[in-house]
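Before relying on records like the one below, remember that each one covers exactly one chain. Contacts with other chains, cofactors or solvent are not represented anywhere in the record.
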Amino acid sequence: MNAPRRTVAVIGGSGVTGIFPEGPVQSHRLATAWGPPSGPIEEGELGGMRVLFLPRHGPGHSIPPHRVNYRANVDALVSLGAQAIVTVSSVGSLRDELPPGTFVVPDQFVDFTKGRPTTFFDGGRVYHVSLADPFCPDLTRTAEGAGRELGLPLAMAKTYVCVEGPRFSTRAESRFYRSLADIIGMTLVPEVTLARERAICYLCLAMVTDFDVWAERPVELDQIVATMHANVGQMRGWLASLLPRLGGVPTCACRQALDHAGV
């Protein structure tokens, strides 16, 4: 039987560099079998929930998306007791109806990354985990409820295409990605796959910062940063409302992800 969630981790991006209003109560510096995580992991409490926070790109946003040590990040959070991971990401829009300032909760992804280690299972026993439904349904429903209550411009059930980065797309690539997905970013994979391999719940909260280049408007970094700063307060409010609701006994099957995946 599933036990109640007591510890949730947040991987920050999109200008979210901290989540504890009065500061963390503890800071953890860890080493893992895959090297160090992106930075110290802060620990605090929000609404009675034990919360861990890790900035994906490190202190000062110094690590580009293709160089993030995703395995170390996920492994370190799990070693500290995380039973769910909520991530924050900035994304580009591939749809007219998803303008900058929209918040998106994806339910599917397409992987166009190239050189990233994508699994914990590099040798020994082989596991083939299912990613038919890659995001936790419990976390998704709760995030939607919190977002609707706050009146956020919220879009659900969208597909995220993850590209290698750090460059932006060509026009031809962007038009191709439009045939596959609704939003585009650089950090979802392999975070989402590694969380499934550790049998914990995973959710992505995405904030649209720009239209991708299919819209015949070259992506400008200053526009992305301006949109990010204009909406980061709403993202913080969403997290503050969501995280305390993630306790209780989950009804999802995330914790059974490895039960029948081993060869």
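The chain has a mean pLDDT of 94.
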